[in-house]
Structure formats: structure tokens, C-alpha cells
Amino acid sequence: MSAEARRPAASVTSPAADSVLRGPGAIAVAMGVMNVATYGFTIVAARLLGPQSYGALASLLATLLVIGVLQLSFQATAARRISADPQHVAQIEKTVLGVTYRASLAIGLVLLVLTPVVNRVLKLDSLATAALVAVTAVPITMMGGQAGVLQGERRWWPLAVLYVANGVPRLVIGTALILWRPDETTAMLGVAIGSLPPVVIGWLALRGHRVPGVVSEEHGFRDVMREILHNSQALLAFFALSSADIIVARNVLPQHSAGLYAGGLILTKAVLFLPQFVIIVAFPSMSTADERRHALTRSLLVVGGLGVCATLGALVLRNVALVFVGGDDYREIASTLWVFAILGTALSMLQLLVYSVLARQGKRSVYLVWAAFLVLVGVGYFVSTLHQLITLVVTTDLVLFALLLALSLYTLRKDDERLAEVVDPGINGA
Q: What is the pTM of this model?
């Protein structure tokens, strides 16, 4: 069945309203709600838990962020394949969801076995808290395949609802549990429970009957897994780099300093996730050979501009920025918040470059990200103060950005030359 046949019936609203409610605009609004709710939960947790307990929760959330790479890989794979070949949507959906559900359970079991390791690495002193990572990983991975199918079929309304459900329940349930018992275990339990509603919504949206179509070998299990693994490796490199510093902080800094660093990262993550809509809009153009260069450069300018505004805001309005990272308990880093904003800007621009690499199916560029991760972890274990760590992280990310941008522009220029030769074989002479 085609993607068009699976879409909801036309509404009775006006064309303008229908465009907002059922078009891509609904996704932008939903992602905004999701990010605000998720950010709100981190603010509530930072305020109610205090630096030490919030530092533990931040390390758990950073671990989930890395594990969530698989979710994003399933989503990207499903969306790309269904969009490119809607005649095989039934086969693609069946394959992707089958792989998704099996992988979700497998990663949950693996993490459950590794609970003592997670407990030791994150210095949680609680096996129950560490086990919640395994419990939460199952539904967030399932959501990836479901979201990818909905995205590929252009079913914007159920996808928008799924995104909202991925943020609001965490804020409501997590806050209630923290108010009941303010520690990292109950906060993480709120995250685990809050990850269930989007899976239920995805299941409801995809439970309808599928009419089998012509089977294509291109969308078989092995090919889908190969693409998922390729996407996972690239995204894992970025998220490992963007999350490694909090784990390093937990191991090399005193607990109070590590908690302060975690508070500063609230601002970093806000700046990182602020321009997510740019990636969503730019990715299709970055996947097209004749639009890649312009899409990338324009997107970098937008992301960079947003980052500059956020950095200036944190520098000039430091007391206002302090409210958003947890209040007076984190006043010791008030004068450093603008540096955390720079870090968020660097990471958001790096993320855009990584998606540009995925769009052109590049492979070598990812090695630079892994190298930066190894430098950060290796050198990070020799620092002893918060300021030394933030300086190391910002420097590493900015150097990586410069190298990755140079390589990307060089590769895109070569692609433009090859495209010109195809259009006009005589352009370079006989």
C-alpha cells in the first residue's frame, strides 16, 4: 500500500490550518513542545535534586543519549527507504519494525547484564538505579522504528503526537516522583515510565492492516541492517563525543564540581537542541547532489547565528541564564555559562556536519569524530578542575569542527566537479 493511501482522510479545516496541523509545521511545533518539556524536566531535576544527585542523573541521561543512537538510526533508515520507494512500504515497514523490536529487547538484555558495569562507571552506588538504564533503553529504541515509518509515510499528525508524548510525560511523571522522593533513582524511574507513552502511540498509529506488495531484495533484512549499522556508527561517534565529558567529570572531579559541570551542561544541551529544526529541513537538500553545498553552508550560518545569540545572552544576562541551569546552587559557574553556550554551539554545528556526512553516505569523516572522542577521554583523565575540563572539551570540539568542515567542503567541491563532468563531459577538454 502506498504512503498516500495510508494517510488520514482530509480534514474539514481551512487549507491554512490544515497546513499547520497536518503538514511539516506540526512536527516543528511538536518538537518544540518535546524539547521544552525535556528541558523543563532537567531544570526541575537540577533544582530539586541538588548538584550531587543531579550529577548522577545527568550521567544516566548522557548514557541514554548514547544508547539512543540506535533509535535515530532506525528512524533515519526507515524514513529514507519509505520516502525513496513508497511502493514497497509494507515490506519496509515489516522489516524495519521486526528488526526494531528484536534489537530493542536485545539491547535491554545486554544492558541488564552490564548493570554492575554501568553502576561502577557512573559511580552510582545503586544497582537498581543502573538497571533502569536497561529498562528505559527498550521503549526508546522501539520508538525509533515507529517514528521512522510515520516520517517516511508523511503521517505528520501521529508523528507530532508521538513527539509530544516523548517529552510531556517525562516532565509530568518525573516531576511528581522527584517531589515525592528527591533522589536520582526516582528521577530515573520517571524517565523510564515517561518513555512508554510514545511507544503506545506508535503502536496505535501503525496497527492497521498492510497489503503486501512486490517483494524487493533491496529491502531485505541484511540490507536494512547494513544501513542501520552504518548510520549507527556515525551517530554513535557524535553522541559519544557529546556525552563523554559528563562521564569524565564524574570520574576526575569532586562530586560537587561534577554536579556544577552537569548544571552547566543544561545550557549546553539547550543550545545544542535549539536548532534541531534546521537539520530536519536541510537534510533532504543535503541528500541531493546539486543542493548539498548550498544547503550545508546556509544551515551552518543559521545554526551559528543562533549559537552566537545564545552565547551573548549567557554572557550579558548571566543571572537569567543561571535560573535556567538550576538557580543559586550553581552560582559558582555563573561567570562560565557563556563558555557552556559556546560548547553547545560547537556541538550543534558538528551535528549538522555529521548529518551532512550521512546524507552523502560518507565514511572517512567519521574517523575524525572518533579520534576527537579518544583525545577527550584520554586527556580528560589528567585534568583536575572544572575550568580545565570545559577548556579541553571546547577546544577539542572546535578543532574537530574546523577539520570536519574543511574535509566536507573539499569533498563537496569534488562532488560538484564530478557532477559537472556528467552534465557536460567536455567541460574539462578532450
A: 0.73
Cβ count within 10 A of residue 352: 26
Distant-in-sequence, close-in-space partners of 375: CB < 8 Å, separation ≥ 6: 396
Q: Which of 389, 258, 253, 270 is nearest to 323 (CA)?
A: 270
**CB-CB neighbours of 302 under 10 Å:** 15
Interhelix angle 221-252/337-359, rounded to 10 degrees, is: 160
CA 42-171-242 angle, 5° bins? 35
Which residue carries 517483494 as its cell?
A: 215
Query: In angstroms, rounded to a whole number, what is the distance separating the alpha carbons of residues 184 and 181?
Result: 9
Read off the C-alpha cell for 30: 511538536
Question: Over its length of 430 residues, how does the chain's per-residue pLDDT go in tens digits?
Answer: 444 444 443 333 334 444 444 555 677 788 889 988 988 898 888 888 887 888 888 888 888 888 888 888 888 788 777 776 777 788 888 888 989 999 999 999 999 999 999 898 888 888 999 999 999 999 999 999 998 888 778 787 888 899 999 999 999 999 999 999 988 899 999 999 999 999 999 999 998 756 656 666 666 677 878 878 888 888 888 988 988 888 888 888 888 888 888 888 888 988 888 788 777 667 666 766 677 788 789 889 989 999 999 999 888 887 887 877 767 777 888 888 889 999 999 999 999 998 888 777 677 788 899 999 999 999 988 888 888 999 999 999 999 999 999 988 888 777 666 666 655 555 444 3
Q: How many CB atoms are located within 10 Å of the residue 288 CB?
A: 11
